[in-house]
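Researcher: Let's continue the batch. This sequence belongs to AP endonuclease, and it's 309 residues. Same format as the previous ones, please.
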Amino acid sequence: MANPITITTAPCCWGVDDVKNPHLPPWEKVLDEAQVAGFGGLELGPYGYLPLDLGLVSEALNQRGLKVVAGTIFDDLVSPSNRDNLLRQTEEICALITRLPKPETHPGQRYAAPFLTVMDWGHEERDYAAGHSDRAPRLDDVAWDAMVENIRAVATLARDTYGVRATIHPHAGGYIEFADELKRIVDDVPAELAGLCLDTGHMAYSGMDPVATLRRYWDRVDYIHFKDIDSGTYREVMGERIRFFDACAKGVMCPIGRGSIDYPAIRTLLTELDYSGYITIEQERDPRNTGSILEDLAASRSFLARTGF
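Model: Same format as before. Here are the structure tokens for AP endonuclease:
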């Protein structure tokens, strides 16, 4: 890569997606293993996983030489009644991440980290239709406009009060997943308010070509997630009625380089387009299946290094 790239990770590699899951590992273990795996940074994870205690988290990060590169809103973005909850999360997350040790800003990086990734989640009818654009229900205009207003409110608060760049993350099983929804949200939320965090795994899971989609929306891409998809497991789960994270528990996400996504082509594209900044590698899994996490992260990092990242 011509420009500097920092590869980071996220708690979802340890199965941390639903903070109510009783099987989640202690947050200190995630930080320990992120350090052992050689990462200099990671995401905060879902709201409520890492404590919102500035002193405690700062000390834990400093002891391990880690930086937090993004916070996460992973919640119902559609319901108007959830607005106050979304804004409270935005306040608390941004108040923390902007006071933690600051990640480096690389030459050529559009916006400084930490970011606030914003994802819609929590709708059973879409969760069971993850990856199936043909059968996934779409929001009507009233509900879509309500979601847009919630996203605008979150992004405005993050930007104007904390100087944090919100990045909208299309996510399998949410109401921003498929190509038509990505185009619509880009049209409806202006660039000065929010960018995109495009995730190679979610794009592929949802039937989009990661290379073509990154190129199409490049002027809005501020932050990137990498993951990979096991093609055999993907074919299997696409033939089932299954929730997205249940598909992940079956191993649909695999170490980068062992799946179907064309990372040499992505590297060529990012080099051509002069991307600079942070790329977070992820591999969602059942939190009870973390025995191979360090091996999987090492495999992903080794493959990316050989590919030129």
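Researcher: Any comment?
Model: The radius of gyration is 18 Å.
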